[in-house]
Specification:
The protein is mostly beta strands. 10% of the residues lie in helices and 45% in strands. It has a six-stranded antiparallel barrel. β1 and β2 form a beta hairpin.
Length: 112
């Protein structure tokens, strides 16, 4: 299953540069703006005026052993800081990972 998912990332994903302490490499994944900075769930959070927070993204990536929180991902001339990282499992096999990221330069709304 993992090889099938990696083929999907290579065929349909966008190039993302992983800039971590252990390695710098190009991978293919998916990037989606998200309307939350919540670490425990992905439900939208609104300000008192109803505006969605900006600068938060969900990224789906192939498994990378060197990727961890606070590493930097680069896509489309912007840098994103990994704030939360989790593996997605199919039975006993980890097949890909998802990351909640914050665009570098945005006001830190994560409390980190």
């Amino acid at each position: 299953m993992r090889k099938t998912v990696e083929k999907i990332f290579r065929r349909y994903g966008v190039p993302i540069l992983v800039d971590s302490a252990q390695e710098n490499r190009m991978v293919y994944g998916f990037v989606q703006h998200t309307a939350t900075s919540a670490r425990k769930h992905l439900l939208p959070e609104y300000t008192p005026l109803g505006k969605l927070p900006q600068g938060h993204y969900l990224m789906l990536l192939p498994l990378l052993s060197a990727l961890s929180c606070n590493d930097v991902l680069r896509y489309n001339d912007k840098a994103y800081i990994v704030r939360r990282l989790e593996k997605v499992w199919f039975g006993a096999e980890a097949i890909y990972c998802w990351c909640l990221c914050e665009e570098r330069g945005e006001v830190d709304q994560w409390g980190v």
